[in-house]
């Protein structure tokens, strides 16, 4: 259970930060859900946060978030991937998206590995320690920005102008498959991996992991590209 001892945040802001922290704990990979314990002196954690996974959330309620993990390899293993084969930001994105989703409609920007120690001393930042039976496994910091007027559920072009500079990951996917770790480690040059999609089937176009369109793979100036053939209805809902 989260220890609630608000100090430098308003009661409303602190409740929102607790909800975000609990959602993060619910979504982190692993056999044991960590307990989120409020740390009243975040400035003492500047060292660990010098290498953090940080991102900005822009939307109905904007926020800065940062996550520090003592052992990323354990998290990668729990997620079913090999650490060297997956970017740390990709492993923790579902958890950070779950945390920021509690703030309302919005977009979680790119997750970068950076020095987030300045976030700890910013006004309104709250830090939670992630604790399991084995001890501390890391920390989560969140700072809420000033509230804005309520926004409609569907973002209009005018509303989108507020987040037009936020970078997002656009991915083109031609297929997927599942492999046991032993088969993955046995891969070598020349190996053929069969995907779950027939040749000629349109590729999926995903924005931050959410399907927004379909398209055909083409070649432009010797580079691969995708020609949009269909945009899904209400793509704004992916935000």
Name of the CATH class of the largest domain: Alpha Beta
Indicate the radius of gyration in whole angstroms: 20 Å
Helix content, binned percent: 10-25%
Q: Give the tally of β-strands.
A: 11
Would you tell me the overall average pLDDT?
80
Q: Mind telling me the CATH superfamily name of the largest domain?
A: CheC-like
Percentage of residues in DSSP E strands = 25-35%
Overall 3D geometry? globular
Query: In the CATH hierarchy, what is the architecture of the largest domain at level 2?
Result: 3-Layer(aba) Sandwich
Integer tally of domains: 2
SS field, number of helical segments: 6
Runs in which pLDDT lies below 50 for 5 or more consecutive residues are 3-9, 149-153
Largest sheet: 7 strands, antiparallel
Structural class: alpha+beta
Alpha carbon gap, first and last residue? 30 Å
Order of helices and strands: HEEEHHEEHEEHEHEEE
**What's the CATH topology label of the largest domain?**
Chemotaxis protein chec
What does this structure look like?
This protein folds into two domains: 11-144, Chemotaxis protein chec; 169-238, Roll (Surface presentation of antigens (SPOA)), CATH 2.30.330. It is built from six helices and eleven strands. It is 22% helix and 31% strand. Strands 1, 2, 3, 4, 5, 6 and 7 form a seven-stranded antiparallel beta sheet that branches. Strands 8-9-10-11 form a four-stranded antiparallel beta sheet, with no helix packed on it. By secondary structure, the chain is α+β, with helices and mostly antiparallel strands. The chain is globular and about 55 Å long. The protein has helices spanning 11-27, 72-79, 88-101, 117-120, 157-160, 181-185, and strands at 35-39, 52-59, 63-69, 106-108, 112-114, 125-132, 135-144, 170-173, 203-207, 210-220, 223-231.
